């Protein structure tokens, strides 16, 4: 047997490869289009809760992308909300890529940053198709890792006049607003409460970190014609939120309709979000098979739980760029 090597990209390698904003957006948009055309396989995520009472769990995501990527992938990412007390990020992840024809392992990548980036890119690409083109006010709830890329990549596409952010801890939201203001070159306002952040915004992203479901985001605050993107692990929205929506879009219905976690879990269980009420998966819209926003007056909801396909696509993009720059290590497997 010929020697088998695995390409390993650690966190420093990922940072050094430094995909541009548009490289990220293009990779994710292309993968969503492939999903819409049926050129992928995705299995609903599963969860591992290691012990009773732990403030966190592991997500296991699995999928395959064809085309020039042609890779199967499995990502395992921990989600532990109290990590900040130890000075740690809430999420640590590893992405494993395999040859889908032989099962040979190809690569192992630090997926903590990739998780943040691909989540932000899916939010932004969703908004590209579902938000009003003239959206000028962004409201973002939550300041965890994915939050930065949500705001940064949305602003890349929309160049907002007003960006408002809020999170539970003042030190967290203030630091988040300061970092965004510095990196985006515009004022980002940290608000003291949910309402002052959300009310009147054109795009509302809810990425809160609740320990149990609680309706913190009120339906009455949503502006007609807005795009609402809730994706917290625990629901922070009212059951009535879906009642005001003209269209509801998800990333993958198979995983959205199953499992115990997710911002719209109660809406699925109550029948408010179902195959009958669902407008489309975002991949179908990106592929041109179903329409996205059709008028400025539509109020639209986009719920994405996170796709293994997005991790694989972005991981592949990092591997290609890292190889061109001589970044990474080759580990002997066999």
UniProtKB/TrEMBL annotation:
Top-level taxon of origin: Bacteria
SUPFAM superfamilies: NAD(P)-binding Rossmann-fold domains (SSF51735)
EC number: 4.3.1.12
InterPro entries: NAD(P)-bd_dom_sf, ODC_Mu_crystall, ODC_N
GO molecular function term, any single one: ornithine cyclodeaminase activity
Matches recorded under Pfam families: OCD_Mu_crystall
Annotated keywords: Lyase
PANTHER family tied to this protein: KETIMINE REDUCTASE MU-CRYSTALLIN (PTHR13812:SF19)
Sequence similarity: Belongs to the ornithine cyclodeaminase/mu-crystallin family.
Protein's UniProt name: Ornithine cyclodeaminase
Organism (species): Labrys monachus
